[in-house]
Specification:
The protein is of the alpha/beta class. The protein has one domain: P-loop containing nucleotide triphosphate hydrolases (Rossmann fold). It is built from 6 helices and 6 strands, in the order βαβαβαβααβαβ. The longest helix is centred in the middle third of the chain and has 20 residues.
Length: 173
């Protein structure tokens, strides 16, 4: 019997959306599955998960961003980087080489008007049947949520940052 891949959405304003997706990636890797992570918006940097990813077989990792977009100075450049990243993500999904593809922070693309949500919807609808996809990011569009098999909304009750505690290596990055 053929396995039907899942569509999972991790959204909300709380910490842990990417972390949850990577937990699923480690489960898949543990069963000898092939995993691809495409990160949107997050720029270069020594994030712990990326350092670890370099040591693992069956895990491909692509960075498709220059860093989170907080100012609108280079918005056209950010938009172009995001669209190129989406082309790469589409190529990876359509390749049918993977068992799991994580589209990390992709929900921001329609939010920032970098890409129409319909492109993401079509990508999910046309994925290989056996492929599982995890979509992460805040404010997931309802069209993406409707396609999902599982949706988790992660909301903060309390965050260390609010108490003046800075991001810590090995916890936040």
């Amino acid at each position: 019997m053929k396995t039907k891949g899942r569509v999972i959405v991790n959204t909300g304003n709380g910490k842990g959306k990417t972390t949850a997706a990577l937990g699923t990636a480690f489960r898949a890797l543990g069963h000898n599955k092939k995993v691809c992570v495409v990160q949107f918006l997050k720029g270069q940097g020594k994030y712990g998960e990326r350092v670890m990813a370099e040591k693992l077989e069956n895990l491909d990792w692509y960075i498709c961003g220059k860093g989170f977009v907080f100012v609108k100075e280079n918005i056209e450049e950010d938009r172009e980087v995001a669209r190129e990243g989406f082309k790469l993500a589409k190529e990876k999904v359509e390749s049918d080489l993977y068992d799991l593809v994580i589209l990390d922070e992709i929900t921001y693309l329609p939010l920032y008007d970098f890409l129409e949500v319909e492109h993401i919807v079509e990508l999910i609808k046309n994925k290989p049947e056996r492929l599982s996809i995890i979509v992460t990011g805040r404010e997931a569009d309802k069209k993406i949520v409707e396609l999902a098999d599982t949706v988790s909304v992660i909301e903060p009750l309390k965050h260390a940052y609010e108490q003046g505690i800075k991001a810590q290596k090995g916890i936040e990055f």
